[in-house]
Design a protein that fits this description.
Length: about 260
């Protein structure tokens, strides 16, 4: 028969075991990689409680041991700024394309899109990773399906490529399997933005040698692939090189979203 002391002892052993498992995974990333082989659900349910406990402990330290009022106000202002950035990016692209769309008599507006939030609970990318990806706490029960765009207030981060019941893997822009049709915001040059690996710049492909693309131009989704709505900011042109053996320019672009800092 279990006595209160035995129950308390078992609870203490469980807490010690869980904290050890969570700490070990933080160092080795083993459970993150396990998600690619044994499914998202098992690793997700193990990682998520520890991630929530870590976030709550960090929030407690920041909110109560520092200047509570100032920190709380800063958090609200950051949320407002992120919301305004998203709204501004959409409005800027709409304003730039309004006159062009008025001339298209057969123009059909894109279908309505709805958004819902999620958290990154694990990273599974790097030189040893099979794919450049992250795991989020949104799955089929929350409305997540494969090939849904994943965005932040700064721009596109990637797309879902494997969805479980409560967790999903997100294929990042940096992965070599990532392909996004984009258009430059100023010169309206089209191309395909491709990943080149972890911590490498993106590659803008199939841009003709005579294209008027400029350094520093913003690249936004063109909406041609059907996965991403038109006008979402993705990357900014970093370098433009002319090739002596190809009909296309060699273009490097830097993504607007750094998933490692989210």
């Amino acid at each position: 028969m279990l006595t209160p002391k035995k129950i308390l002892g078992l609870f203490f052993v469980f807490i010690v075991f869980y904290l050890s498992l969570y700490t070990w995974n933080s160092r080795t990333q083993f459970l993150d990689r396990l998600a690619s082989y044994s499914g998202l659900e098992v690793a997700g349910w193990i990682i998520k409680p520890g991630k929530q406990a870590q976030t709550r402990a960090s929030d407690f330290w920041n909110n109560y041991l520092h200047l509570v009022d100032v920190h709380s106000e800063n958090q609200n202002l950051k949320k407002e700024i992120d919301s305004l950035r998203t709204e501004l990016a959409g409005l800027a692209e709409e304003a730039a394309s309004a006159k062009r769309l008025e001339k298209l008599l057969d123009f059909a507006p894109p279908p309505d899109w709805s958004r819902f939030g999620s958290r990154i609970i694990a990273h599974d990318f790097g030189p040893l990773g099979a794919v450049n990806s992250v795991i989020i706490d949104a799955g089929k029960f929350q409305g997540a399906l494969p090939n849904l765009p994943v965005i932040t207030p700064k721009g596109v981060m990637g797309r879902t490529f494997k969805t479980g019941l409560n967790f999903s893997s997100v294929l990042l822009l940096s992965d070599p399997n990532s392909r996004i049709p984009v258009i430059s915001s100023k010169t309206r040059v089209r191309g395909i933005l491709s990943g080149r690996g972890y911590q490498e710049p993106l590659s803008l492909e199939y841009v003709h040698l005579n294209s008027p693309l400029e350094h520093g131009e913003l690249l936004v989704t063109s909406g041609l692939a059907g996965i991403y709505p038109k006008g979402l900011p993705v990357a900014r042109v970093e370098n433009i090189f002319r090739s002596e053996i190809s009909l296309f320019l060699i273009i490097e672009a830097m993504p607007l979203v750094n998933s490692g800092n989210i």
